[in-house]
Amino acid sequence: MPTSPQGLGVIDTVHRSLEYLTDISTLKKSNIRISPSSRTDSGVHAHRTSAMVHMPLENNEALDETTEIKQKNLSGINELLSSATSEAIKVLDFHSVSSGFCARKHVIYRHYAYRLVVPKSFDYCYPNKPSLPLISEYPYSWILTPRFDVNSAAEACRKLEGVHNVASFFKHTLRERREGSAENTIRWLRHIGITMGSAYSLSSSNFDYYVVNFISRSYCREQIRRMMAVIVAYANGRIKLCDIDWLLSTPDPINFFAFNLIASPPNGLFLANVVYDPDSFLNPQPYAVHPWDHIAPDLININDEKNIVC
């Protein structure tokens, strides 16, 4: 699923599509509510994500009451989304969940992937020679230079793995600092690793393609993009491994700027997966209190990751 078309939010588009499709009264349509499992920065793409939807239903019939009813509803929503968004958004599956389930709190982990393109020669660097394959990559990757060393990048990834206070990679705004607002910045990065990738559309032997994968239950604001800036800086020889140690051992949002770094561009980042334990859909542990529980008991979970949904 690419970035939202025309600058409109994906959740907004799904919300309005559900209102358009349903036969329920105008009054009840206004009570359709959606809670996304993840939020992304502007410019970040999403391949797979999930959202919980509150649907006031006529006659208390679930939208997945039978296989036939479910398939009809799934086809209906996707036909409408395809027409409205030129196939930019698609719902792969949905099913009912019980009260106490939360699309955010019951996530096991979120998988983000960051795409990198490295020219094999400075002759092919953008914009020195903007070939068509390189132009096609620009909206979906961070285009680097041949200075990038993949082995050093892998070393930096291993350094960032594990349980850390990641405050040095947290975008803590000046207003938040003035107001004294604080956020828990302890995160368990279960995996950070770099692998060979492939072209997004037009392939060329003049470039190497890489993907940096991040797996964690949750992330701080702009954490991945700032970590990517550090990984690339180390792989380009701009900072040392001890500098990464210092950022981890001296957690403070202001420290990220000590090396004249800026967050990596958002266009290379993809939300690749949001994973749940399927048992949590009907037997959520722990039980999460949600405002919708006091409005109506019918909750539908729309999830576009097939291997999550039974």
TrEMBL record:
GO terms for biological process: tRNA pseudouridine synthesis. Pfam families: PseudoU_synth_1 (PF01416). Its EC number is 5.4.99.12. Keywords: Isomerase, tRNA processing. Residues 156-277 form the Pseudouridine synthase I TruA alpha/beta domain. GO terms for molecular function: RNA binding; tRNA pseudouridine(38-40) synthase activity. It catalyses: uridine(38/39/40) in tRNA = pseudouridine(38/39/40) in tRNA. This is tRNA pseudouridine synthase. Belongs to the tRNA pseudouridine synthase TruA family. InterPro entries: PsdUridine_synth_cat_dom_sf, PsdUridine_synth_TruA, PsdUridine_synth_TruA_a/b_dom, PsdUridine_synth_TruA_C, TruA/RsuA/RluB/E/F_N. It comes from the Eukaryota.
